[in-house]
Amino acid sequence: MPPSASQDLDLAHRDTRRTVQLDDYTRFLDRERIERIYEKAEALQHLHVVHVNSTFYGGGVAELLDDLTLLMNNVGITTGWRVIQGAPDFFSITKKMHNALQGGSIHLTDLKKKHYEDIVYKNAVRTHLDRHNMVVVHDPQPLPLIQHYHRNGPWIWQCHVDLSAPDRELWRYLQSFIEHYDGVVVSLDAYTQSLDTPQRTITPAIDPFAIKNKELSEAEINERLAHYDIPRDQPLVVQISRFDRWKDPEGVIEAFKKAHEEVDATLVLLGNVATDDPEGKEVYESLLDEETERIRILSVEDTALVNALQRRAAVVLQKSLREGFGLTVTEAMWKGSAVVGGNVGGIRHQIEDGENGFLVDSIDEAAAADRGAHSESRPPRDARHEGPSDRPRAVSAPPHAGGLPRSLRRLRDALPAERLTSPGATMEPVSPHAGPA
Ligand code: UDP
Q1: Alpha carbons 272 and 86: distance in angstroms, whole number
Q2: Which of 168, 165, 191, 205 is nearest to 65 (CA)?
Q3: Top-level class of domain 5-205+399-421
Q4: Radius of gyration, alpha carbons of the chain
Q5: What is the spatial order of strands in the sheet that 315-318 belongs to?
Q6: Strand ranges (DSSP E) for 33-95?
Q7: What percent of the chain is modeled with pLDDT above 70?
Q8: 280 with 98: CB under 8 angstroms?
Q9: CA angle 425, 429, 435 (to 5 degrees)
Q10: Which of 41, 65, 205, 357 could be 339's S-S partner, Cβ–Cβ 3.0 to 4.6 Å?
Q11: Residue nearest atom 9 in ligand 1 by C-alpha distance
């Protein structure tokens, strides 16, 4: 049974609109699994949880938090979402850190460290997290926040990047903050590090009800493509990603050119720019010389277009060189599209090569896989006036329908036993901000 928390009633009074409810998942999950989630949530009813990251949109973390925080409220766990602020020079440092965590190089000066820590401190002064009895901090941008609070419960650091080969000097520096946390969450077992802090894995998930993932009619798909003048008379090859070098947009263009010297097709590179990623604009602009009638490069924020492209594509590419998880792969697989992905990180975890997609290690392999996917194929659906049931099911949908069950289990794992055995117990007294160390 739903835990009919007063939170639900309050939300209902605030507005007549409705957010996705756990019960809506009966379309995708059996009743037994839904009940198990309610049972897990039962033990956590008394918690006030907050997630902290660095952007409200653009990129997988915001994508995850958008539906996860709503669902947590729906099952009776009061859950908020805060976003730290910073000028582009702050995000330029944190983007360098992100790159170095994924194996890039970094020139980590004392000045950069000071600026990073100063901006996080300013955020701590204006963000009041002392009353929450669980704080989940996402990725490196807000990581040092923990130094500035008296804690009223566990703090968890959840890292979404590909940690298979982080820069050691940077890791040592970040470790000085990570060690203050009660738990660390990574996206794959392969990313766990040598740490005294307990580590857990949560593989991310998508929201099947979002505009980006819900069913679309052929007319709706056509309307979105026509709106952006995307040709519908040739098969589409698409890659949808932030404009980021790790997503290898140049490699995608090169592979497409190799694969389609003779076969007609149109490549669409669609990207958005997250506010915490100042390199995006530069990467986007560096690609524009490649634009032709058959290579479209779009930078727009339009989730219905993401959906339309993933559904219509003959091939969805995600030719990343590093990938924490790759929700774009999950989204394309959920829709039953043929997927060709870089043989790295979370993509390797989702695609079983030759079974439900193709993994590639080079531009030539990407070109061959792209060509292969077309050779079995057929004129574009638009030209054949097919119904959706004619669509080749090159992949089966992965069982990611909302990240709630795993998140609840991990939340529960992170809590001291006394908090679980006495739901609704009085909280520890609220402490004031500690100020800088
Ligand atoms: N995305 C989007 N519009 C774009 C490009 C990407 O909405 O133009 C979304 C994409 O659909 C996915 C998320 O951004 O939900 C990217 O998550 P992913 O895990 O693939 O990569 P990240 O950006 O976190 O590295």
Answers
A1: 19
A2: 205
A3: alpha beta
A4: 22
A5: 295-299, 266-271, 236-240, 315-318, 339-342, 358-360
A6: 48-53, 78-83
A7: 81
A8: no
A9: 140
A10: 357
A11: 59
Over the stretch 392-413, which tens digit does the pLDDT of each residue have? Answer: 333 333 334 445 555 666 655 6
Q: How many CB atoms lie within 10 A of CB 356?
A: 18
Count the neighbouring beta carbons within 10 Å of the beta carbon of residue 66: 14
Question: What's residue 383's pLDDT?
Answer: 32
Tally of CA atoms within 13 A in the half-sphere of 43 that contains its CB: 18
Query: Using a 6 Å cutoff on CB, does residue 318 contact ligand 1?
Result: no
Reply yes or no on whether the pLDDT at 96 is more than 90: yes
Q: Is the CB of 271 under 6 A from ligand 1?
A: yes
d(CA 127, CA 124): 5
What values do phi and psi take at 95, rounded to 5?
-70, -35
Domain boundaries, the chain: 5-205+399-421, 218-390
Cα distance between residue 19 and residue 92, in whole Å: 35
Mean pLDDT of 294-315: 96
Q: Which residues pair with 134 in a beta bridge?
A: 49
Atom of ligand 1 nearest to the CA of 59: 23
CB 156 within 8 A of CB 129: no
**Predicted model pTM:** 0.85
* pLDDT, tens only, 160-188: 999 999 999 999 999 999 999 999 999 99
Specify the DSSP element, H or E, that contains 69: helix 60-74
CATH number of 218-390: 3.40.50.2000
Establish whether residue 181 lines the binding site of ligand 1, counting it when its CB lies within 6 angstroms of any ligand atom: no
Q: If you measure from the C-alpha of residue 3 to the centroid of ligand 1, how many angstroms do you get, rounded to a whole number?
A: 33
pLDDT at 29: 85
Distances (CA, A) of 23 to 13, 69, 368: 20, 16, 43
Ligand 1 centroid, distance to 60 Cα (angstroms): 5
Instruction: Return the minimum-mean-pLDDT range out of 42-51, 325-334, 359-368.
Output: 359-368
Which of residues 258 and 306 earns the better pLDDT score?
Answer: 306
Separation of 209 CA from ligand 1 center, angstroms? Answer: 16
Identical fold between 5-205+399-421 and 218-390: yes
Ligand 1 atom nearest 58 alpha carbon = 14
Report the alpha-carbon distance of residue 268 to residue 236 in Å, rounded.
Answer: 7
Residue 184 and residue 199 in contact, taking contact as beta carbons nearer than 8 Å: yes
Q: Please count the other Cβ atoms lying within 10 Å of the Cβ belonging to residue 293.
A: 7
Tell me, what's the pLDDT at 409? 63
